[in-house]
Specification:
Number of strands: 0
Oligomer: single chain
Helix content: 55-70%
Structural class: mainly alpha
Strand content: under 5%
Shape: globular
Length: about 350
């Protein structure tokens, strides 16, 4: 057998160039075939915006209470930063698990969807995180709504003997059941214990001493449910899009389309119930002053402005979704939308911790 060696003759370099050209022609696409679009790196501005939103969601429980209360003359509740953080974790857990249950049902409605390649389930982790947060909040209730410093500070009798205590225990037990449901053969059964948590939160937010507490609890119930489904379902849909981007990209876009139609209804319900709840807390003649002079009003104003930004991102994603040229382009604004919704969740938690405005 003869071996082929590189030519040492002067024409060797020319032969090498000819060989390279032939190889290039062999790997080039045939004439008339569409050329692959070059990959474009995502703009740095988008990445910075996402990082800023993530930082805001992280810092709101820590710095938000002091910023909202500054100059208002209102006294902060004891341990307000810790309570805000715990409620942020609990609300996020509701969104993650509730969104998975609802969005998985939407995915099953898409013909030909590769359901065996669904994203990894986060429900159990979310439920246990929510359980830990609810347990810590129950410990605060057991200490007379004060952050306990020692285990001996806890009075378990307050949990069974008070309305807030029983609601706190209901939330802890409901998250435990939701975690068990997530590991069962029917993870969708977690919808019932998650609904129990939302009912408990709605009742806790409107004690019997206020005017028409059941009306307020009903508004909060609808508001929390729609917000949970809006944020949590979008997160799971985006994870589904990423999981199916190579196996079934059209099925992923179809799931996003189904979600977009539901999200429009959820946004309308959130807007109506949020406005009604605001007018119950702040009479129409005092809204303008309280939005800037009270911690509750400032937090509410920040949340409303951010929800408006989220609505613009949702409209942009919906517009791209209906475009025939690049339907997958809806992924980018939807991804920024879900990050902004994470900040909205943190602001919602802060809203439950700051002092309720006085009806003038």
């Amino acid at each position: 057998m003869s071996s082929i060696r590189p030519s040492a003759e002067p024409g060797g370099e020319a032969a090498a160039e000819v060989t390279a050209e032939v190889a290039a022609e062999a790997t080039a696409p045939p004439a008339g075939a569409p050329l692959a679009a070059p990959r474009r790196r995502p703009p740095a501005g988008r990445a910075v915006a996402v990082l800023v939103l993530l930082a805001a969601a992280t810092l709101i429980p820590l710095l938000g209470p002091s910023a909202a209360l500054r100059g208002t003359g209102e006294a902060p509740a004891p341990g307000i930063s810790g309570i805000t953080f715990l409620r942020t974790v609990m609300f996020a857990a509701l969104c993650v698990q509730g969104g998975e249950v609802f969005a998985a049902r939407l995915a099953r409605r898409v013909p030909g969807a590769p359901l065996d390649r669904a994203p990894r389930c986060w429900s159990a982790y979310a439920a246990w995180a929510g359980c830990a947060a609810a347990l810590a909040l129950a410990a605060i209730v057991a200490n007379g709504n004060l952050v306990p410093e020692h285990f001996s500070d806890l009075d378990l009798g307050r949990l069974s003997g008070s309305r807030d205590g029983r609601l706190a225990l209901l939330e802890v037990n409901a998250f435990v059941v939701a975690a068990l449901c997530a590991r069962s053969r029917r993870p969708a059964s977690a919808a019932l214990p998650l609904a129990a948590v939302i009912v408990a939160e709605a009742l806790r937010a409107h004690p019997p001493v206020e005017d028409h507490p059941l009306v307020g609890s009903g508004l909060t119930l609808v508001h929390l449910t729609c917000g949970m489904l809006w944020a949590g379902s979008l997160l799971y849909v985006l994870r589904t899009l990423r999981q199916w981007r190579s196996a079934a990209p059209e099925a992923g876009v179809a799931v996003l389309g189904l979600y977009a139609r539901v999200a429009a209804v959820l946004f309308a319900a959130i807007t109506v119930t949020g406005t009604a709840s605001t007018l119950r807390r702040m009479p129409p003649g005092t809204v303008a002053d309280q939005l800037t002079e009270t911690a509750y009003g400032r937090t509410l104003l920040a949340k409303a402005l951010l929800v408006a930004v989220v609505a613009v991102l949702a409209l942009l994603a919906r517009r791209r979704l209906h475009g025939a040229a690049d339907r997958a382009g809806a992924y980018a604004p939807a991804r920024r939308e879900v990050v902004a919704l994470g900040v909205v969740v943190a602001l919602s938690a802060l809203l439950t911790a700051v002092p309720v405005p006085i009806r003038w």
